[in-house]
């Protein structure tokens, strides 16, 4: 039997059912690999289109910083429009791929988590189990829009901070404080909205709701089960923070031997620690998602215990009374 603690169920699923975490790693890292491959391919193809004259090659071979920078400026001159077109096409393609992949993967993982807590397996061929995938696509689109808005907010924070410290009256301390405050506010707002949209995705799968119905249900869940939702977020957030601190501490070891070890060994150690951190973070994400599903599926503990019976289960005495018995009946017996 599963416990009545959603947080404990989330951590227990991470350990006992690692397939959920591996599934999360599979789709996230697959998209990450495609992203980096597409980025490297686009940059390589873009560099191949740049004309390089013999004079510019001569300047590059001098290895003088001023001459090399001048040659690079000549090479990239007039190619900014092609670079912008490449960035726009790549961004749109990757955005569509992420919306589709994340929606399908999230629906599959939440469906599997629901089957785990209900101790059964869904039959996706049955009509009652068909998911409104367009709602999942809409939620993923909103999450992408929130991320883009956060990036624009970071850029605006930089411009606002620059306005605080003009060249005529520089104030780097005030500019940094303004920039840090705005970045923190934007990051906090984007994190809350992304968390809310990820929580709404559960109701699309669990209750087959549409986009705005799922958002309303997420708000209602936070209102009804505030303590459970806050407990899950706090404990898994604490676990993520501890993992980040440990990863940053461990990654300092290969960097400390940078002067002794070969650069390839140091870079490999840093990459290994980084990948382990991302793997643990994905497991924690799945555990937190499982805890939220457990909040929906596991009943609340509302029964009160009898005094003096600490470990005894509560009894429903109303069902133990036979209303038809003349002695115990509250209806007067006929003579």
Word description of this protein:
The protein has 335 residues and is mainly alpha-helical. It has one domain (6-297). It is 75% helix and 0% strand. The protein contains twelve helices and no strands. The protein has helices at residues 6-16, 18-48, 54-61, 65-76, 80-118, 133-164, 172-206, 211-224, 226-250, 252-256, 263-297, 317-320. Helix 2 (18-48) crosses helix 11. The two termini are 51 Å apart.
Main beta sheet: none
Average pLDDT rating: 81
Number of domains: 1
Number of distinct beta strands: 0
Shape: globular
pLDDT < 50 runs, ≥5 residues: 120-128, 301-335
Order of helices and strands: HHHHHHHHHHHH
Strand content: under 5%
Outline the fold blueprint.
Elements: H1 6-16, H2 18-48, H3 54-61, H4 65-76, H5 80-118, H6 133-164, H7 172-206, H8 211-224, H9 226-250, H10 252-256, H11 263-297, H12 317-320
């Amino acid at each position: 039997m599963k416990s009545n603690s959603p947080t404990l169920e989330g951590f227990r699923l991470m350990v006992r059912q690692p397939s959920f975490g591996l599934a999360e790693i599979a789709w996230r890292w697959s998209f990450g690999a495609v992203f980096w491959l597409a980025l490297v391919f686009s940059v390589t193809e873009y560099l191949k289109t740049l004309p390089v004259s013999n004079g510019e090659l001569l300047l590059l071979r001098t290895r003088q910083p001023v001459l090399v920078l001048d040659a690079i400026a000549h090479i990239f001159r007039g190619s900014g429009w092609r670079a912008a077109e490449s960035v726009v096409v790549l961004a749109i393609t990757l955005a569509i791929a992420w919306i589709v992949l994340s929606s399908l993967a999230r629906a599959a993982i939440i469906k599997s988590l629901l089957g785990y807590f209900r101790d059964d397996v869904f039959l996706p061929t049955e009509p009652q189990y068909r998911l409104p995938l367009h709602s999942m696509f809409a939620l993923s689109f909103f999450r992408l829009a929130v991320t883009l808005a956060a990036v624009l907010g970071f850029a605006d924070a930089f411009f606002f901070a620059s306005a605080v410290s003009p060249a005529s009256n520089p104030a780097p301390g005030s500019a940094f404080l303004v920039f840090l405050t705005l970045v923190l506010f934007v990051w906090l707002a984007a994190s809350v909205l992304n968390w809310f949209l990820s929580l709404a995705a559960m109701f699309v799968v669990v209750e087959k709701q549409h986009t705005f119905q799922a958002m309303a249900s997420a708000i209602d869940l936070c209102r009804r089960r505030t303590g459970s939702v806050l407990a899950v977020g706090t404990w898994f957030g604490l676990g993520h923070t501890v993992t980040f601190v440990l990863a940053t501490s461990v990654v300092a070891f290969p960097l400390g031997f940078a002067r002794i070890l070969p650069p390839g060994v140091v870079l490999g150690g840093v990459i290994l620690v980084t990948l382990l951190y991302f793997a643990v973070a994905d497991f924690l994400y799945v555990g937190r998602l499982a805890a939220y599903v457990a909040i929906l599926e596991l009943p609340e503990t509302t029964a009160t215990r009898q005094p003096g019976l600490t470990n005894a289960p509560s009894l429903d005495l109303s069902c133990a009374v036979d209303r038809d018995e003349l002695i115990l009946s509250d209806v007067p017996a006929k003579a």
